[in-house]
Amino acid sequence: MPGVNSILDIGRLALFANQSALEVTGNNIANVNTEGYSRQTVRLEDGISIDYRPGQIGTGVLAKEVIRHFDEFVEKQYNEKSSDTNRYSALYGNLSSLDSLFNESITPGINDSLATFWEKWQDLTNRPEDYSSREALLGATQNFLNGLQNAADDIARMQSQMDDFINQEVDEVNDILNEIASLNQQINAHDVPGQNNANSLYDRRALLVRSLAEKLDVNVIDNGGGDITILTQAGQVLVDKTEVYEIKFEGPKTMKDLLPSSSFDGDIYFSGNDDFEYTVEVLTGGYASSANSATFRVSLDGGATWLKDADGNELTFSAHDESERVLVGDLHIWFGTASNSGGTATQQLTAGDRFTIVPKSGLYWYETTSTPVNITPQIDFTGRDNERRLTGGSLTGYFNFRDNYVGRYKERLDAFAKSMAWEVNRLHSQGTGLQKFTEATGTYAVTSDTAALGSAASGLTYYDKLQSGGCMMYVYDTSTGELASAASFGPLDFGAGAGIQNFNPVTMSLTDVQDAINRTYGGYMTASIVNHELKITAKDGYEFALGTDTTGIYAALGVNTFFDGDTALDLNVNYKVQNDLDYVCAGHVNGAGEANAGDNTQALAIAELQNTKVQLSTAMDGKTTQTLQGYFNGIVASVGADTASNKFNFEYNKSLADDLSERQEEMAGVNLDEEMSNLVKFQASYTAAAKLIATADKMLQTVLGLKN
């Protein structure tokens, strides 16, 4: 019933309500600079009204709950843009560092040393027998190789650095996931909507989600009751209420995805390393052996595109065991039993069976301890993200830089080195120096002595360069320097039948090359295979020279070559040339079988390579025909273009993220002017409530005084 006591209650409730409002306002002011803090206000509600004469009379004010001002919709948008921003920030920052490695505008670099290399070959054409010219050529070559190897070393170091960054980020992600799960549990225990809001816990969780979104792209689902589920945008669950599913950064793996009808009981194996994943798909069923072999194709971008040969035809490979492992890209691939890489699987592969080779450290999500799911960010060769993997955050940026960008530059640099070695060696191997050979050993090995040299099963680096044709060889008498006999020169005979049989790369092996030399010139020299490399040794009293070779055998096997190696990191001068300048081949054997000291035929041909368009190819870019210098300039230009592109993407996404952050700040941020105004308002209300109580007390004293 309304009365003096009701007035006291109204004053009491007003005191409590305004005291709560003052406390919340003070807390806002205290946390104005606290990261992640969301502005809070007390929701005041009119008390119940009592029906009475002359009408309904209120019973005061109630402080119902402390409200957290936070826009979940804006936060979701911000986290998405924050993921993109941090992805491109990681890319732009690291690409800027890489760009400086190839910037030759300040100091001379690979381009200048390459130009000097061609210049020294041109100088050698003027004085082919001059040792100072040969010495200058080797010096220029070494400068060029040093620059190339330094660039490759720097690239490798940056890739290693990315692994360190990724490993650190993964640990931080798992710590965040566990803390979010713990907060879910705490919020469940403390949050009672409408009565007790766990605002500080919500703020802490939102801040952690922001940190998580900076590292990888996430999707947050509010389950109600304080519980949230966090997934990657691809759908992998990271946190489900209080359950955590961690991610791990682990070393090379292979995985198989067999058809339900497949009976294959073995596994896939590999050796070597690469920056790309290999997707192996069986095209025709069969065994993983030389008899009734299954065939397969390979993709380096998750199946979006498939490897092709120089003519644009899809490459297919035969499945073999370890003894005849197949060279695909930079890996040797073979099939073994489930427990033994050297064994032979007893069951057949089925068309449609798929295998994945990850020859590098990758990112895996573990739903259970035994089922890792590959979520390593991947960009296909058309530039699209693999939506089944991570696509945002700094982790994606680090992986993209390591694999897609640095991997692409490294592949191009290796293609440049490989083509450089082949084109120079192709000419040099057909030439002669200032002295002939008594012994020559190839520098490029095969993995199988009996596999066709023109097939991937041979393991020969330049297997795809070999052609059908013939190759010349000349044998001389050491004492006279003349041809040993009328039968001591001419093409190698690759067949036992009548007439000279040409080399066929589709069917002939290293053993066949050995046999051809012994068959044709066995009276003067001996050919053998040592550690899967060809070795030719002249018998006492004889020496030999190599001549015109339309097959490419000499260059492919590394016999009489100028360069050794086939990547930017391992390209070097052939040890024979390095140790003896006489073996720099400036001339050639002429039609009379003479190798003259003043001949400059091969030196001139090699010097002309500077302006000759050659064929280069990579898995990502396909085939291109241009000069070697032009191709290297293209590598430098692509680094600059990629840096500029990612700078734009970073700045664009950052501006959007900053705008969304400002919108959230307008809602959740503390405005000191507004809080000071509220402070004065609630203080005045508190004072007025106290005055009301004092007035009610006087009224009560007056009523009590009437009794006396």
Structural descriptors:
alpha+beta, about 700 residues, four-stranded antiparallel β-sheet, 12 helices, single chain, five-stranded antiparallel β-sheet
Q: What percent of residues adopt helix (DSSP H or I)?
A: 40-55%
Uncertain stretches: none
State the end-to-end CA separation.
Answer: 25 Å
What is the SS-derived class? Answer: alpha+beta
Describe this entry's structure for a reader.
This protein has 708 residues and is of the alpha+beta class. Among the domains are: 4-69 and 669-707, no CATH class; 253-360; 410-625, no CATH class. 42% of the residues lie in helices and 19% in strands. Strand 28 (614-618) and strand 29 (622-626) form a beta hairpin.
Present the secondary structure layout.
Blueprint: H1 4-30, E1 40-46, E2 49-50, E3 57-58, E4 61-68, H2 72-102, H3 110-126, H4 131-190, H5 199-215, E5 218-224, E6 227-232, E7 237-240, E8 243-244, E9 247-250, E10 253-257, E11 266-271, E12 278-284, E13 295-299, E14 317-318, E15 326-328, E16 331-337, E17 354-358, E18 362-366, E19 372-374, H6 393-428, E20 439-441, E21 471-477, E22 489-491, H7 510-521, E23 525-530, E24 533-538, E25 542-549, H8 553-557, E26 563-564, E27 572-573, H9 575-579, H10 601-607, E28 614-618, E29 622-626, H11 628-668, H12 672-707
Antiparallel strand pairs: 1-4, 2-3, 5-6, 6-7, 7-8, 9-18, 10-17, 11-16, 12-13, 12-17, 13-14, 15-16, 18-19, 20-24, 21-22, 21-25, 23-24, 26-27, 28-29
Helix pairs in contact: 1-12, 2-4, 2-5, 2-6, 2-11, 3-4, 3-10, 4-5, 4-6, 5-6, 6-10, 6-11
